[in-house]
Amino acid sequence: MPVVALAIDDPVDMGLATSRARPGGHVTGLVGAFDGILSRRLQLLKDFVPDAKRAAILMNPATLPRSMLDRDLPEFTRMLGIPIVVFEAPRPEDYEAVFAAMVRDRADGVLVLADASFFVHRMDLGRLCLKHRLPSIWGGRDYLEGGGLASFQGDYAELSRRAGALVDKILKGTPPGGIPFEQSTKFELVVNLKGARALGLKVPQSVLISADEVLE
Asked: How many angstroms separate the CA atoms of 181 and 21, rounded?
């Protein structure tokens, strides 16, 4: 069955495509990220917490290969100038223990990677971020409902409009595996002031000026 995947980070790393230009198989879609997006999100976390001594990344290993993060971690660490530790949460029942481990590790903030399971349980994850006073950066505006601090990701409205053109090509007979994945050309920074107030954080003026949307 043909599939149009919307706003995923990297179809190749996720095993959905052979390459972005020639996906192969039955999947094409739109990429809501770019190669440096994790660096941009981590820098955003440091902008909010400039005195941070340690950062965490939360991921679901069922969605993204751990090897991809391990490959890029030295560069992320060099860029921020602080240690960055990756935590895995494959199941909702793991969340409490994983956040307790972040606290023991003295993380000063967390970058939460986009994941379907994380999205379903975003309220629980947001609650844990607030409970443990961990500023959090996410990959999509709707993730902030639980109390996340900010999101930086491809503009979902733009991606949804462009998805219609891909569906039209498939309906006219073009195999999805022959349609290149398209990358978002518009990125959206959303800041959650309510989440910042709950953490007692002041949002930097530079971030507010850059924000596409500010949630009150």
From this structure: 6
